[in-house]
Design goal:
Layout: E1 7-11, H1 18-31, E2 36-40, H2 46-57, H3 65-89, E3 93-97, H4 100-110, H5 115-126, E4 133-138, H6 141-147, H7 160-176, E5 181-185, H8 190-209
Parallel strand pairs: 1-3, 1-4, 2-3, 4-5
């Protein structure tokens, strides 16, 4: 019986491949007999899905960066309360495709909001739940752009300078907190990325079981 668990987040530009790798990791852990739930932000609750549609595809006027910040954290607070906290309490692995770091880079580095203010708002929504490891799939913005769907949401449709700020923001966060971040070259073969992620996560799990 495996009684250790991890809270894992995947981060990166849209088109970096994080959703695929999050899904593969979840599938691997479940097949290995480790209870795991796979979530995404914003979403994974009825309220979260409504907020996701609103904030990503809003057409009736401009959404301010402050509005985005609170909408994303409203979704997050519900997800933490309904799903993440109970799962972690039950020793289940939790994998989330995007989490608080997305808010820091998109609303902070991208939109220009104060980073410390964002951290404070994020902390309220987190309710004490902090990721054990955050996996950044880093790709050049030009490559990410070619991978994205033709139909772009409000964030994907931003100009190249915005996405450049996002990538720089992620790399700065990872540099400032290397003990939490695993940065992987997102241009590597998908299978190799899966191996790197899996090996690291299993090592972390086994380290907690010692």
């Amino acid at each position: 019986m495996n009684n250790s668990s991890l809270f894992i987040t995947f981060e990166g530009l849209d088109g970096c491949g994080k959703s695929l790798q999050a899904s593969r990791l979840s599938e691997y852990l479940q097949k290995a007999g480790r209870e795991t739930i796979l979530l995404h932000e914003p979403g994974s609750t009825p309220l979260g899905e409504e907020i996701s549609r609103l904030v990503k595809w809003h057409e009736a006027g401009h959404l301010s960066p402050i509005t985005e910040l609170f909408l994303f954290n409203a979704s997050r607070a519900q997800l933490v309360q309904d799903t993440i906290k109970p799962a972690l309490a039950g020793k289940k692995n939790v994998i989330v495709d995007r989490f608080t770091d997305s808010t820091l880079v998109y609303q902070g580095y991208g939109r220009g909001l104060d980073l410390e203010m964002i951290r404070q708002v994020n902390e309220i929504a987190l309710q004490g739940c902090q990721p054990d490891v955050s996996i950044l799939l880093d790709v050049p913005i030009e490559i990410a752009a070619t991978r994205r769907k033709k139909t772009s949401d409000r964030f994907e449709a931003e100009d190249i300078s915005f996405h450049r700020k996002i990538r720089s923001g992620y790399l700065e966060l990872a540099e400032n907190e290397p003990e939490r971040w695993l940065v992987i070259d997102g241009t590597l073969d998908k299978g190799l990325i899966t191996e790197i992620v899996t090996e690291q996560v299993i090592w972390l799990l086994e380290s907690k079981e010692v």
